[in-house]
Amino acid sequence: MQLSISDYCAKNVITLKPTSQIADVIQVLLHKRTDVTCVVDEDEKLIGIVSKYSLFREMLKGTDIRLPISSIITHDVVTLNRNDNFDIARNTLLQHKVAHGIVIDEHRRVHGIVTKSDIITGFLHEKELLVNQLSALIENLEDAVISINTEQQILTFNKKSEKMFNMKKEEVQYQPIQNLFPQLLDHFNETLQQHSPSKPQQVEIGEHILIASFIPIQFQHTISGAMVVLQDITKLETIATELESTKRLQHTLHHALAKNFDAIIITDAEGIITVVNDAFYDLFKITEAETLNQHWTTVIPEITFEQVLAGNRVEGDVRTILKNPCFISQDPIMQDDRLLGTITKVIFRNIDEWKDVFLRLEHLHNELNFYKGELQRITKQDSAFERIIGYNTKMVKIKNEALLAAGGSSTILITGESGTGKELFAEAIHEESRRTGRFIEVNCAAIPADLMESEFFGYTEGAFTGAKKGGKPGKFELAHQGTLFLDEIGDMPLPLQAKLLRVLQEQTFERIGDTVVRDADVRIIAATNKDLKKMVREGTFREDLYYRIDVVNIHIPPVRERIDDLTFLCDYLIKKLNEKMEKNVMGLTSAAVSILQNYDWPGNVRQLENILERAYNLGITKWIEPVHLPDSLIPLPIVQSTRLMSQPEKNHDSWTLETTEKQSIVQALAKANNNRSQAALILGIGRSTLYSKMRKYGLHK
């Protein structure tokens, strides 16, 4: 970095007009103790200078001091621009053999006077700044830098070196290089002898694999030492090995795909085709250039990718492609709940044999579901609603109402916010209904509008282009003598609402493209988190359908309205997460429970499970503490204090296992209105155990 003379010149310059008298100059020079004064015109632009030497000459001549100074002005003045650097200033003064120069701006107005001593001071500051910058650069390089003098003593040891070798600069400075880093000694000696940089060398020091570049340090053509720059490539070596393994794996994968008997299509998350195999080209009769890096809509519009790109698995889709009947299955490729791409398999050879296999598998699947349901009914001791966590008064009342409603055949509407467990109630109602058919679930928000009718009522062979051979049963047909659960019914299009209403009224339906009327012995359970009454008023939901499905209404309260169930929900979810994550977390500390109990839970049980699973990924061992919870759960004024209180190992003995156990007993007794038998049942322990623990904590009084 070069400095300018503007910051180093003397700025208290005396300026006079040409009409000023010689006496004025004498007075000013004597008063200001300066050697030069500048003469400027009416626009303050430089005309020349009057020096004390020119005054001496005039006084020796006996010139009248009352005369104007115009006759003694020196017009040939050495000037410098205020933005000039010190190299330009030095060269200009040397060229004109003067000791000072007038510094002017771009309008030729006087800015100051610079002398040789000012220039020397500027040069010194400039060099000092450069040295400081170079030192800071070396200290903060991402590579380690070590320098030695000719006696092979360490002089420079930057921060990266300290971190890499776990040594302080003070410990190694002026120590012989051979004592601390003998691996570098020969290369240093070679650099000092050859007076030139050496080629980068690979060296190993401890656990580090390094690329070392050795550079001689010269001063006035004399070698004063040498420097080495060390780049750590340990991780790069590991990555290179992994990349080589990945390349081999990729080659194996491509070879396996190429020889696969069925057509394989792999896309990225945007639907761009990245990989296909030879069987694909055989089926679609197109070239590689027409396929790879193209969007699926332009290459294979015969196959739809919307559902799989939305993260849903698609199985058993049958299409006709270039007059070939094909069986299609599609899977999303996920990583950490993020869609990376899709893989599609198209079976088009020996399709008739495959069809028999799939029909047999579907039959076995139906039988398996039936026997599983029967086994659950035979072996369970309590109702299916006991699996739903909820001991709050509201929840107990709702579960009893749902159990009573399960024995009837009326349509049931389950309402409640998202994440409250509406689908759990629907499954429990079906189990307790003793209906012999299957429980079929349909998410009305996840099915495209143009596919809804075929999903609900099925279709016959040839009903439309792409209809699979033999037709396909709809959800009503699959749920015959069972239960059809219509989740998110508020998202059902109006045209389909009319058809659904007709089926509910007539108890019959027809497949698309068919004339055969089929019976619909199906019980409907609908669920929504929307205000259907408001939608009826707005005309987005049919009023007659609303009153048809709202025969029995079950409203699931949000978590914030049954906050006393929170600890039981946490216990259940922690057991579930322990199995899933293969951990042995004991539970939550009292401080963490308090934070959860003071949150309003807009996402309900689903949000609670996500937050607990997040805590599992933060390195917890036994207890979930406030530090493992998102800051969004904690009111801002108490975030810091809560974080401090959440550390049991820092003398906060109040948050121990005993405290948590004691609080759980107190909560259970309060919930049971001090009925100890009921409290023991809630805690899942025997009465004698409860009495023992109450005596332990002084609660028996």
Commentary on this structure:
By secondary structure, the protein is of the alpha/beta class. Helices cover 42% and strands 20% of the residues. It contains 27 helices and 25 strands. Helix 1 links the parallel strand 1 (15-16) and strand 2 (36-40). Helix 14 (393-406) crosses helix 15, helix 21 (566-581) crosses helix 23 and helix 26 (676-683) packs across helix 27 (687-696).
According to DSSP, the number of beta strands is 25
CATH architecture of the largest domain: 3-Layer(aba) Sandwich
**Largest sheet, if any?**
5 strands, antiparallel
Under CATH at level 1, the class of the largest domain stands as Alpha Beta
- Total helical segments: 27
Count of discrete domains:
5
Separation of termini? 82 Å
* Broad structural category: alpha/beta
Strand content: 15-25%
Q: What fold name goes in the CATH topology slot of the largest domain?
A: Rossmann fold
Helix content: 40-55%
Oligomer: single chain
Low-pLDDT stretches: 636-656
Rg of Cα set: 44 Å
Q: So what's the overall shape?
A: elongated
Mean pLDDT: 81
Spatial arrangement of strands, main beta sheet = 8-7-11-10-9
CATH superfamily of the largest domain: P-loop containing nucleotide triphosphate hydrolases
